[in-house]
């Protein structure tokens, strides 16, 4: 008989039972609604063992890759240890600053090395904790295949407590705590010939820089087109590195966009989201990654869907800007 | 033995084929799309899918109470028969686009119609 472990107890799951039935029968109140694998209310995550594929059919590929599943349609074939989605305990680890580099006027790259092994998918985010408890989320721009450090791109926000501290006070060899990596905006091979559209503004390039290099390193051969936008050229960064990548990978295209009136040669006038949609008005079958300004991300997500992209194929990582800065 | 409406429509695969088309139509329809502003698109798509499964006669646990509770805030914003009609119209257009016969479209529309009073909180 298959055993289900939940909140420290082990339960026997009968042949005809779903994980949801089993846990409910044992008195747990698992949120659920449709009981037919549709509404996704009963989403859980297997932290040990692998859920059957039927329990993941309609989930986003990046959720399935992290062993999320629907409890109502999960008839397990082997033992599972499960938690409710959203209730996972994310461990904190101590990291040392090994490098700090200026990427442009407002953005620095901070490279960290953790004392314990740190697994992540490029494009996921982590939380940075200051000693006094202040914490903020940053996307991971490095890729484990090429970088020994975990790289973050930190934009200095006016009045931003964390970003000002990271820019002005934090020094090489200082230590801080970070959470484990979370988030579902990352590359999964899926169909390696699928076209990928990447659109980011400002330091929203960070996760895309990770996702892009991860996709190339893993042999993605569909078109990959990155649109990076800022108000002016000085707000863009990694321009030379991205142009070099286009020379080495003929399936990779890069369009730096500038939305102010001062647009030098080699840059495209307009907002990144609008330039991207103008070039690709039909997005049927595309996979899309959107990162940056929350309003741009929300608008483009909707427009990409209306232009034919399936919602399952749209990955978004809007910045959350703290109201307390 | 008669096959169920859900089977005649093509089961879960039919729901999957319909949900994106239906949701796109709803979001593009100026009569009703303001009700969908600022909502989480994934959660909304899951709800649309649950609704389509129900309207297609498929397995579901939809209750009148869920429909009432789920739409109460929209009723306060002025959700009316006119908007309900627009959704049913989009549903029928979705099915036609998928080459579903008129006879089956009528059956689906009737099931959708059965939720009208709950949705509108009457």
Estimated helix fraction of chain B: 55-70%
| Dominant shape of chain A | globular
Estimate what percentage of residues of chain B fall within beta strands: under 5%
CATH fold category name of chain B: Globin-like
Query: What distance lies between the first and last C-alpha atoms of chain B, to the nearest angstrom?
Result: 37 Å
Which class of secondary structure composition applies to the elements of chain A? alpha/beta
Describe the largest sheet of chain A.
6 strands, antiparallel
Topology readout:
The complex is a heterodimer of chains A (325) and B (122).
Chain A: E1 2-6, E2 9-13, H1 19-25, E3 43-48, H2 61-65, E4 68-70, E5 80-84, E6 92-102, E7 107-114, E8 125-129, E9 135-139, E10 150-155, H3 161-168, E11 175-179, E12 196-201, H4 205-217, E13 224-230, H5 239-248, E14 252-258, E15 268-269, H6 272-279, E16 287-292, H7 294-306, E17 314-318
Parallel strand pairs in A: 1-5, 12-13, 12-16, 13-14, 14-15, 16-17
Antiparallel strand pairs in A: 1-2, 3-4, 3-5, 6-7, 6-11, 7-10, 8-9, 8-11
Chain B: H1 5-9, H2 11-28, H3 41-55, H4 64-76, H5 81-97, H6 102-113, H7 116-119
Helix pairs in contact in B: 2-3, 2-5, 5-6
């Amino acid at each position: 008989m298959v055993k289900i472990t939940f909140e420290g107890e082990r339960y026997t799951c009968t042949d005809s039972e779903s994980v949801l039935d089993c846990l409910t029968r044992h008195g747990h109140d698992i949120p659920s609604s449709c009981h037919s694998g549709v509404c996704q209310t009963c989403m859980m995550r297997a932290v040990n063992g692998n859920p059957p594929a039927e329990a993941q059919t309609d989930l986003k590929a990046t959720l399935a890759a992290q062993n999320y599943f629907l409890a109502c349609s999960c008839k397990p074939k082997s033992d599972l240890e499960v938690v409710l989605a959203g209730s996972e305990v994310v461990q904190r680890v101590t990291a040392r600053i090994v490098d700090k580099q200026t990427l442009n006027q407002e953005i620095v790259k901070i490279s960290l090395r953790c004392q314990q092994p740190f697994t992540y998918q490029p494009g996921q985010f982590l939380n940075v904790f200051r000693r006094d408890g202040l914490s903020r989320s940053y996307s991971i721009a490095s890729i484990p295949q090429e970088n020994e450090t975990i790289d973050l791109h930190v934009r200095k926000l006016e009045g931003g407590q964390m970003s000002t501290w990271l820019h002005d006070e934090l020094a090489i060899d200082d230590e801080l705590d970070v959470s484990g990596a979370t988030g579902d905006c990352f590359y999964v091979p899926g169909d390696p010939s699928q076209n990928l559209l990447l659109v980011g503004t400002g330091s929203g390039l960070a996760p895309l820089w990770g996702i892009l290099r991860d996709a190339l390193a893993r042999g993605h051969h569909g078109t990959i087109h990155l649109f990076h936008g800022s108000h002016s050229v000085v707000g863009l960064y990694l321009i030379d590195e991205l142009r070099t990548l286009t020379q080495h990978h003929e399936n990779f295209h890069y369009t730096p966009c500038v939305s102010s009136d001062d647009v030098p040669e080699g840059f495209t006038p307009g907002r990144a989201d609008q330039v991207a949609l103008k070039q690709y008005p039909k997005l049927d079958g595309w996979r899309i990654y959107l990162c940056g300004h929350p309003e741009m991300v929300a608008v483009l997500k909707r427009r990409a869907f209306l232009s034919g992209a399936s919602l399952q194929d749209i990955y978004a990582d809007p910045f959350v800007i703290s109201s307390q800065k | 033995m008669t096959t169920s409406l859900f089977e005649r429509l093509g089961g879960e695969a039919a729901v999957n084929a319909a949900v994106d088309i239906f949701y796109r139509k709803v979001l593009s329809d100026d009569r009703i799309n303001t009700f969908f502003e600022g909502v989480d698109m994934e959660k909304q798509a899951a709800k649309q899918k649950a609704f389509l499964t129900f309207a297609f006669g498929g397995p579901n646990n939809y209750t009148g109470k869920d429909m009432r509770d789920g739409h109460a805030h929209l009723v306060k914003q002025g959700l009316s028969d006119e908007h309900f009609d627009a959704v049913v119209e989009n549903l029928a257009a979705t099915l036609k686009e998928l080459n579903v016969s008129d006879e089956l479209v009528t059956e689906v529309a009737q099931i959708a119609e059965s939720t009208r009073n709950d949705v509108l909180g009457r």
